[in-house]
Amino acid sequence: MRERSGYPLPHVNAETISIGNELLFGDICDTHAQTLGRFLSSHGFVHARHTNVRDDVEEIAQAIREALARVNTLICVGGLGPTHDDLTREGIALALNEEIVNDPGVEHELKARYAARNRQWNPLLEKMTMRPKSALAILNPVGSAPALAIAIDDKCLIALPGPKEEFESLLFGRISQLLASRRPSHIVTRILRVVGVPESNLEIRLGDLMKSQNPTVAPYVGKMEVRLRVTASGASNEVAERLAGETVEAICDLLGDDVFSTSDQDLAEVVVSLLKHQKKTLGVGESCTGGMLGARITSVPGSSDVFEGGFITYSNEMKAREVSVARYDLSKFGAVSDPVARQMAEGVRRVLNVDFGIGITGIAGPDGGTPEKPVGLVYIALASEEGTEVQELRLSGDRDLIRYRATQLSLDLLRRRLLS
Fold it and tell me: Are residues 34 and 174 in the same domain?
């Protein structure tokens, strides 16, 4: 692969602060941190740190001072409402040693909105018309509390309201526009998804690509898959797109069919797309996964074109009655065995008259394991006109994770058969 060109990846660091007791007490999950991380990365910033702070003016101010000493872009979320524990304005003012002033334009707009909705204005709402003296108030398109933006020499401080709809509307709207001028270069990100390869093996197979500075290649381990984030920087979007595209192509050359998506598609989406393209149909027989495989397939829009249905054959009686598993084999080999998985896949294919049948049987735990058949032992089978393939899996994790991993590897077994 040729030498990389273009800008080095940016080193413009940003930090974020989420403010609110409810986050630290665990009453709600701080999903804003993930959103902010993705937003900043896509805008060319290095998201260096995220901090949670309780509703305390001194602690908010201290967190802001410390963050601005480290980075030149800071985004705070929460604490801009009208109640007594909404203290972000006061924390910012204390951190910057500024007074809080009324913003007549904001007050006029908010009162007009309340009047238009026939809602009564009350003194508590006055708090949302206040701002630190040097702050620019940015009107909220879907709520009441304005966002705040403050330029401090070469630094930028932004404060956003906490409610999800208001936060995202402002972040992806006006704030995105404001930060565009601070973006050091054009950034393009591509996500590849890999199945069946441990992260450590990926690093060996990708070699020097993992050490590249532009584009960077960063692995993220998921549930029975690894995401590879390729991030390229360039003087123009075209340059960044070219660099990212070259790296994606190089990764696909090295990993082959282990890459199941270059557009961040879920494995079920990929399988449904392949089935549609080849005009093939599918049915499933599930035991330990209890319908999870069917649910993943039917979560894909348009899956009804290729997915005929399935059976949840949890008991031995259901396995024998619905998908014709031999009672003798159930007795001799047990429900969790190669012959039973094989007959489940073949029985589903025959009963539903489909091109492919998948059978899954296993021990998801936490109970039910034995020394001979431990928790995590799963058999998956794929039947088609080309024959039936059975795989014995030894999966780790809790009950739900074992079940999910079994569905993931079943989908991958089908994907590879379709590609062949």
Answer: yes
Supply the range of the domain harboring residue 408: 267-419
The predicted-structure confidence for 330-352, as pLDDT tens digits, reads as follows: 999 999 999 999 999 999 999 99
Determine if the pTM surpasses 0.85: no
CATH code, domain with 340? 3.90.950.20
Mean pLDDT on 55-66 = 98
Q: How far apart are CA 281 and CA 274, in angstroms?
A: 10
Contact 408, 419 (CB under 8 A): no
* Same domain membership, residue 95 and residue 32: yes
Q: How many domains would you assign to the chain? A: 3
Tokens found for residue 62: 């201290």
Backbone dihedral angles phi then psi of residue 390, each to the nearest 5 degrees: -120, 135
Say if CB 134 and CB 96 are below 8 A apart: yes
Please say whether the beta carbons of 224 and 404 come within 8 A: yes
Whether 173 and 195 map to the same domain: the answer is no
Cα–Cα distance between 414 and 172 in angstroms, integer? Answer: 39
